[in-house]
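Workshop exercise sheet. Pairs work together: one partner reads the sequence aloud, the other fills in the structure field after running the prediction. Swap roles for the next sheet.
Pair: D.N. / O.F.
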Amino acid sequence: MTGDLDANEWYRQGWVVLCNVLNQNEVTRIRASVDEIAAWAEDDRGLHHFEQTDAGPVLARSERFADEHDYLGGFIRRGPMTNWLAELFGEPAVLFKEKINYKHPGGGGFAPHQDAAAYRFVDHHISAMVPVDHATVASGCLHFAPGFERGRMATDDRGRLMPEVVEELRWSAVELGPGDVVLFDSYTPHFSDANRSGGSRRALYLTYNAASRGDFRARYYEDKEAELARAGESFDGERVRISISDDFLGRPVGG
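Structure field:
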């Protein structure tokens, strides 16, 4: 596929890959923007999360930057994703949340889950994953499985899919490069492994909902920050708390 949205593929499996849909200028500017936002963490500007690796502490995620970064803010709200999302939603889309997952060498993966388990206020979302670096099996690319049409699948008390559900699903590794985009439904099962390569696997994850359902971005981040303040920065001192669900497998700094 080279840019046209294949709706049949979307409805068949719950995700669709768009290859080489961003030009080199966009890729270059996205990469520079991600570097700028990563530098904000040094000044405690924005919302950032860190994890422990064998090589030491590293930045794991940055969030809530669409209103602060001119280029990425425009790309997120007026870029090509908005047209594809409007087609899939059947109406305009509004931004629900945005993040950068850095997944530096040794960075943790994510257990099998559905995003819907952690997304409040609206019951359906679509996310766009925009790779900044090559996402390969070695660097911890996404793995998807069909089944989004079933809605919420059985989870444990951590928000992870139950082992028997994971076992029955047919998983596919989705390797991507800069310039590609993958769109996936909030009910699409997915996971990623740790980064076992020598380079980073940075990616934007941009999540939207249908505009008619309302704009909940500010409320989402208010709710999340309150949750983090109440519950602390880790789950049982074993895993970093970067989400409402306990699906991220990264270690807390110092852990």
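Discussion prompt: The first helix runs from residue 7 to 13. What would you look at next?
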